[in-house]
Amino acid sequence: MKHVSYLLMILFLSSCFPLSIPPNLEKGKLIEAQKFKRKLPKQYAYIFTDPKDANEFYYYLNAKFPPNQAGDSEDNVPIQIDNTNYYISFYETEKKSRIVNLLPALANEVMRKNNVSIELNEPPIVRGGTWYIVLVITDSEFNDALSPNSEHQKKMLAYAKSIHKEYISTTNYNSIWLQNPANTDK
Fold first, then answer.
1. What domain count does the chain have?
2. Residue 92 banded pLDDT, cuts 50, 70, 90
3. Which residues form the signal peptide (predicted)?
């Protein structure tokens, strides 16, 4: 029994304990944005994990919807679906994961008490992060088009999912720019 308790103690001390884990949203999800992260607006948003580098979604949107005179392709990008005007805004945000690893801290303490000069430099709390794209879609009067109360919610959610799928599958954003009829007519 004594050996089992030692074994359990060693396993306990060598384990990593997660304090916070970011959600897996590779397939995307409709969530109230402010509940996902406080600094986001009080609107429903389609949120998905961003596996690409920083600012890639911005480059994608620039290719898909060329900037207007003001050059803004981040906030209120105008789109038209079924002859109705809508606006897309997006946010890149990070959710951090934190994991506690007790073994290096305890090993350092034991070595210090035994006057051993070796010290493990691993931090007791390991941090990492996952990046997300948060898509907010509003109608021409800036009402939340992804809200369950919106009559066009299903259509807007399908559109957000199509943008997500196209963004993930596209590596060359110039091909999107060439596919847009508004760009080839010039």
1. 1
2. very high
3. 1-20
Contact 112, 34 (CB under 8 A): no
pLDDT single digits (tens) 28-61: 999 999 999 999 999 999 999 999 988 888 888 8
Q: Indicate if the alpha-carbon torsion angle 177, 182, 184, 186 is positive or negative.
A: negative
Q: What is the pTM of this model?
A: 0.74
How far apart (Å, rounded) are the C-alpha atoms in residues 147 and 9?
50
Q: What's the domain range around 139? A: 2-184
Tokens of 121: 């430099």
The two structure tokens encoding residue 115: 């006057």
Backbone angles phi, psi at 87, to 5 degrees: -130, 135
| Residue 51 φ then ψ, to 5° | -80, -5
> Distance (Å, rounded) from C-alpha 138 to C-alpha 84?
11
Count other Cβ atoms within 10 Å, centred on residue 129: 12
Query: How many C-beta atoms lie closer than 10 Å to residue 27's C-beta?
Result: 10
